[in-house]
Every structure is written in C-alpha cells, then in structure tokens.
Design goal:
Elements (H helix, E strand, L loop, with lengths): L1 H6 L4 H11 L3 H14 L5 H5 L2 H11 L2 H6 L10 H34 L2 H6 L7 H27 L7 H28 L3 H25 L1 H6 L1 H6 L10 H21 L26 H29 L1 H10 L1 H6 L10 H32 L3 H5 L5 H34 L6 H10 L1 H17 L5 H15 L8 H4 L3 H4 L10 H24 L5
Length: 538
C-alpha cells in the first residue's frame, strides 16, 4: 500500500517545473497585477480621505448599509486611514485573488484534461495524482508570494496607521482566502464534467459567498462568518489583528485539498463524479444551425454572468447616490476627479457620469471576452471543424462582431437600468431618466471602439490579444485616476473613454463620438479582411 501511495505522486516535481516553464509570463503577470490592485491604492488614501473632518464624513458614508453590503464591515473605535482602506478594499481584493486561483487551477487541471494534454502526461511514467500534487504546490507557492508582495508594498509606503503587523495580517488574509478557493476548485474539477462546467460552479460559488457575506454583514453575523469573504474581515486588521480567521481558512484549505486528492483517485480521466442530469438530444437545436446561434452558445454563460454583475453593481452605486453627493461636495479631490468646478452647485450630472464611466469600463470586459472567444476556439483546435463545413470565415467573423456590438449596448442599458431602478426609491429627488440615458449613450462608442480593436487583433495580430486587455487597464487608470496622478487632460484623451466629453460637465460633442464609431468600424473591417486571408492555426 505504501508503494502504491508513493507511486501516485511520482513525477510531480517534473510536472511542477513544466507548469512553471509554461506559465513563466502568466504567473508573474498575475502576481504583479494582484499586488498592484491590493496594495497600489495605499499611498492615495490620505488624498482620498482628506482632512480629519472629511474622513469622518467618509466614515459615516461607509457605515451606510448599502456600502457595508457592497464593500464590507467598518469597525474600530475611531475612523483611520487603514480601517477605511480595509473596508473599501479587502473584499474586492479577496475576489481578485480568488479569481486568480480559480483560473490557474482550472487551467492546469480540467482544461488540460479536456484538451488531451493530461492523457499524454498519464501515458508517461507519472503517478495518477502527480498533476494535482504539482498544482497544489504551485498554488501554495503563488499565494505565499502574494502574501509577501502585498505585505511588503503596503508597509513600504509608510502611510499613517498602516502598521507592519496589520499589513502582514491583511495580506495573509487575502492569501489564505485565495488558497481556500484554489483548494475548493480542486474539489470542483473532480465532480464537474468539463472545464466550462467547473468554471461555472467555481465562479457561481464565489458569487454565492459574496452575496452571503453581503447579507450577513448587514443582518446576520453567523451567515457572514460562513463565507470566507466575511471570515477574513473578522481579522479586524489595523485594530484587533485577529489571527484565528487565517488559521481556520488554512485548515479548511488543507481539508479540501485532501478531499480533492481522494476524489481524483476515484474518477476516470475525462469524466466527472457529478451525475449528468441533462437530457440527451438526438440532434442539435436549430439555433446552432447558424453562426450567430453558435457564437451565442459559446459565449452565453460569460455574457449572462457579466450582465448580472453590471446590473447589480450599478444598482449598488445607485443605492448610495445621495450620500455620495454629500461626500463629493466635502472632498476637493473627488471634485477634481469628476471635473466639478468650484462654483458648481448641481453635481448630480458629474457624479452620474463618473459612475457610468466606471461601469462602462467594466462592461468592456465581456465585449473583449466575446471577441477573443474566436481566437480561443482557434487555439483549441475547434475552429477547424467549423470552417471545414459550409461556413465562410466572413459569416463566422460577422457573428462574433455582431454579438460584440449587442453586448456593448446591453451592458450600458443594464447600467442605466440598474442605476435608475434603485435611485427611484432611495432619493427624495431622483435623477432624471433622460440624464441617465444620455450619459450611457455618450459612452457607447468607447465600448464599440474596444470591440473593433479586439476584432482587429484577432484578424491581424492574433498573438497580441493581450494588448486589448492592457489598453483597457490603462484606460481605467488614466480616466479614473488621471486627475489624482496629476495627468493632463490630453493624456486621458489617448483612450476611448477619455476622448469622449464628460457630459454634462463638458459640452457634448459629436466629433469624438462619431470618430470612435468610425474607428471601431474600420478596425472591425480590417480585422475581418485579415481573418479571411490568414492561416487558421492551432
């Protein structure tokens, strides 16, 4: 029995080195991006919070039940920069770390299995559990690096009330939360029938834990601590600095990893332990007979998930609209960020513009995801089977392009709808419907242009689709934080969102609106021409 047990993990070190070699650029990019998100806003906290009086107003805003549900608890006998930062960023940072762990685990387990790579590895002298063992060691290593990097960079800025102990505990809470979701995903990939199903279950559970925490933070302490996102908040970083939530999450992670290994030893390669309850079809549905139906079928899960995210996030912003206006009026930094003049009395328009701008940038993510799905299908070798039938490249490309345009419009409509529905009930004088609709309409060309850029990259520069994501991140930093970083207005105009006028603070102009629409069309047409002419490679 001992020999069999040892043989199950034989070759895991070689597999670990192979994974590290394969992800030699991906893993550092993830770690740097996560560290920047988790710790990068620390030096801006004094400017964000303002004076002691303004920080008190911000503290009262953060006590609003809607803000508690959206961000998390605020605690302590007095409001400090570190406690406000912990409330504003811990839950959202934990979500980013959790997503990183989920994606990496699925990529090196079920995705490799679905695409046949793991079957080739199993044919070599490697143990049955070698790959899962290598992935588990990798995830421990990545989360330890995240812990060290976040703790170091949070402390190195030397901001008031950010103690060394608090910074280390904060980063440890994020890392252990990430490890928990990595271990949970190791279990899920054993019961799911495909990588897509594993992704749906994992992200669905992450969303469930977020909603459970949101409800628990407002109404039930018991429900809040059941969620790992709520449990890590009970470390009370920079106040009581409790270590027990971290210990609990590490213990649960080890148990889940053990369960993952046990389930992996029971199932067959390419199969899942979860019963397949779906009804078998003798023929595919008629919707799959065309390019649009196929495109929708391949992307619908992602689009629906992001649609729900955008609507709920816009509703959350709408729920704190009244308090947000009061805070903005008391904080010169936010007035500068939103382009509010010193003598401007009505700030409703600029606040709505900034909120829709943020949601527009978030809505660009499913637009690019839809476009880049075409490239993903090519890389995974499935595009050959489609184009091998009586399907032209032009019609297939148009299917993805048309769906991307629809997604661009739907994201902004959901933003306006989510925002409008909530403010009707929380504000004594609700924001006018035409104002919300016009602001959303103003930003449509930005999403359209990003869709065109994605299509161009798929057609002409298929190995550089990362440029689209990088440009989106740069757009967010320059348009949202440009004023805070002291960037001139012309620098913001180098991005699609910055090029558009911030109506109603700035007069509306059709020229940038039309220019971005034309740019999106031209880029899309060039991408289609390139896609028709180039080779389809796996």
């Amino acid at each position: 029995m001992a020999t069999t047990s040892l043989g199950s993990f034989s070759g895991w070190t070689q597999l670990l080195r192979m994974i590290q070699r394969r992800d030699r650029w991906v893993m550092p990019a993830w770690i740097i991006g996560v560290t920047m998100f988790c710790a990068g806003f620390v030096p801006a906290m004094p400017s964000i919070a303002g004076s002691s009086d303004e920080m008190g107003i911000l503290g009262e805003l953060m006590k609003n039940p809607a803000m508690v549900a959206m961000c998390g608890l605020i605690y302590g006998s007095e409001v400090t920069l570190s406690i406000i930062y912990s409330q504003m960023m811990m839950v959202w940072s934990a979500l980013v770390v959790a997503v990183m762990n989920i994606l990496i685990v699925i990529r090196h387990t079920r995705t490799d299995e679905d695409e046949g790579r793991l079957e080739v590895i199993r044919a070599l002298p490697t143990g049955r559990l070698a790959n899962l063992g290598a992935v588990s060691v990798l995830m421990v290593y990545i989360n330890v690096v995240v812990f060290l990097a976040c703790g170091f960079f949070m402390g190195v800025f030397n901001v008031e009330s950010f103690t060394v102990r608090g910074c280390l505990l904060y980063s440890a809470a994020l890392a252990t939360c990430g490890l928990f979701f990595a271990a949970l995903t190791m279990v899920i990939v054993q019961i799911a029938h495909s990588s897509r199903e594993a992704m749906g279950i994992s992200t669905g559970l992450l969303g469930f834990f977020y909603i459970l925490r949101a409800y628990g933070d407002v109404s039930s302490e018991t429900l809040a601590v059941i969620s790992p996102l709520g449990l890590i908040q009970r470390t009370y970083c920079f106040y009581e600095d409790r270590l027990m939530p971290v210990v609990i999450l590490v213990s649960l992670s080890l148990v889940l990893m053990g369960l993952g290994f046990a389930l992996s030893s029971l199932r067959d390669l390419g199969q899942g332990l979860l019963p397949n309850l779906g009804r078998a079809r003798a023929h595919a549905p008629r919707t799959l007979s065309g390019e649009w139906g196929l495109t929708w079928r391949l992307t619908r899960s992602t689009i629906l998930a992001w649609s729900a995210t955008v609507f709920i996030s816009a509703a959350a912003y709408g729920s704190v609209m009244g308090e947000m206006e009061d805070f903005v009026m008391s904080n010169p930094l936010y007035q500068q960020m939103m382009g509010i003049g010193a003598n401007e009395k009505d700030i409703t328009g600029p606040v709505v513009t900034m909120l829709v701008l943020i949601m527009g940038i978030i809505g660009t993510i499913p637009v690019l995801t839809t476009v880049f799905k075409l490239r993903s299908e090519e890389v995974q070798g499935r595009l050959d089977y489609v184009l091998g039938k009586s399907v032209s490249r032009w019609r297939l490309f148009i299917g993805y392009a048309g769906l991307a345009v629809i997604v661009s419009a739907v994201m902004l409509v959901l933003t306006a709808a989510g925002f409008w529905v909530v403010i009707q009930s929380v504000m004594t004088e609700p924001v006018s419907t035409p104002l919300i609709a016009k602001v959303a309409f103003n930003y449509f060309p930005a999403l359209f242009a990003f869709g065109g850029l994605g299509l161009f990259l798929v057609g002409y520069a298929k190995k550089y689709t990362w440029v689209g994501w990088t440009y989106l991140v740069v757009s967010f930093l320059m348009t949202y934080m440009g004023s805070m970083m002291g960037l001139p207005r012309w620098a913001e105009r180098l991005t699609p969102f910055g090029l558009l006028q911030r109506w109603p603070s700035e007069p509306f102009s059709w020229w940038p609106w039309i220019g971005l629409m034309v740019a999106g069309i031209v880029l899309g047409v060039l991408g289609a021409l390139g896609f028709r002419r180039r080779d389809i490679l796996t």
